Each structure stands twice: as structure tokens, then as C-alpha cells.
From TrEMBL:
GO molecular function annotations of the record: transmembrane transporter activity
One family name in Pfam for this protein: DctQ
Organism domain of life: Bacteria
Name of the protein in its database record: TRAP transporter small permease protein
Similarity annotation: Belongs to the TRAP transporter small permease family.
GO cellular component, one term: plasma membrane
Stated role: Part of the tripartite ATP-independent periplasmic (TRAP) transport system.
């Protein structure tokens, strides 16, 4: 007869499995959106330049579309950077502390970063709602401006999640310097 796992272990394993799956899905979505944003930006700019040089024709929407794609790239890239520990950190204090207190200070920094990003995501939602009420369209593309502003709450929410992951599940994110 085999020994049964404690009841809590099964739930934790299942919950951890779901969290790992969610992490893989979000990571794949981040990568896809980043590549698409960069490819679109480069494609729009190259097409505009080629048409200007070869046919003396300009794409009036190319610069605007490129700008908006880069906005999305920056905010999704911020999430990716938070996941991998690529954001700038001030780590002078932990350098002078023993290992455990240093990890606690770094973890506290990650928690503060996560909470700050959550607050910015909250205000980003308010901004998007306000932009929806304004019904403003972009000048060249004539798309609703709230589509562009939506990058803020989505990017900051993802960064909040990624900083929290780094603080509390460093092995899952590969982020160094957080409490294990």
C-alpha cells in the first residue's frame, strides 16, 4: 500500500500547476505581442521609406501606427523585463547585508514595485474609461485612442504580476535576489 500525500500537498501541486501553466501562457503572449509590435513598427517604417524613395508616395498613417506599436512594445516589454529581473534596481544596501536580510530587502523592493504597478494599472483603467467617454480618434488611423491607452493598464497589471512572482516564486520566474 502506498503512502498517501497530505491533502494540502495535492491542492498546492494543482494550484502550482495552474500557476505554471498561466506563467507559460502569459510568457508566450508577451513574446508574441512584442515580436508583432516590433515587426509591425519595422514593416511600417520600411514600407514608408521604400515608397517615398521609389514612388515619391508617403503613407500618412505609418508614423502614427509605428508610434502606437512601440507604445505597446514598451509596456509589454516592461512586463517581460520584470519577469527576468531586467529592470534597473538599486541594490547598494543588500550588497552590504548578510544573505538573508539582503534577500528580504530585495523582496520588499519587489513587493513595493508590484504594488506601485498595481496602483498605476488601476489609474490606467480610469484613464482608458475616460478616453472611451471622450470618443477621441487618432488623427491618421482614425482608431479609438483608448486602444492605445489600453497599453498602460495591461502593461502595468502584467508588471505587477511579474514583480509579485519574482518576490514570492523566484524559481518560477528565474528572477534573482528574492526570498525563497
Amino acid at each position: 500500500m502506498s503512502a498517501a500525500a497530505p491533502a494540502g500537498a495535492a491542492r498546492t501541486g494543482g494550484a502550482l500547476g495552474v500557476l505554471r501553466l498561466l506563467d507559460r501562457v502569459v510568457t508566450a503572449a508577451e513574446a508574441t505581442l512584442m515580436v508583432a509590435s516590433l515587426a509591425l513598427s519595422v514593416g511600417f517604417l520600411v514600407a514608408d521609406i521604400v515608397l517615398r524613395v521609389a514612388a515619391n508616395v508617403a503613407l500618412p498613417w505609418a508614423a502614427e501606427a509605428t508610434r502606437y506599436a512601440i507604445v505597446w512594445l514598451v509596456f509589454i516589454g516592461g512586463s517581460r523585463a520584470a519577469r527576468t529581473g531586467a529592470h534597473i534596481t538599486i541594490d547598494a544596501v543588500p550588497e552590504f547585508l548578510p544573505e538573508r536580510p539582503a534577500r528580504l530587502v530585495l523582496t520588499a523592493g519587489l513587493v513595493v514595485s508590484s504594488l506601485s504597478c498595481a496602483v498605476l494599472a488601476w489609474y490606467g483603467v480610469a484613464l482608458v474609461r475616460q478616453m472611451m467617454n471622450f470618443r477621441q480618434l487618432s488623427p491618421s488611423l482614425e482608431i479609438p485612442m483608448w486602444w492605445v491607452y489600453l497599453a498602460l493598464p495591461i502593461g502595468f497589471a502584467l508588471m505587477a504580476i511579474r514583480f509579485a512572482q519574482a518576490a514570492f516564486a523566484p524559481r518560477a520566474t528565474g528572477h534573482a535576489g528574492s526570498a525563497a
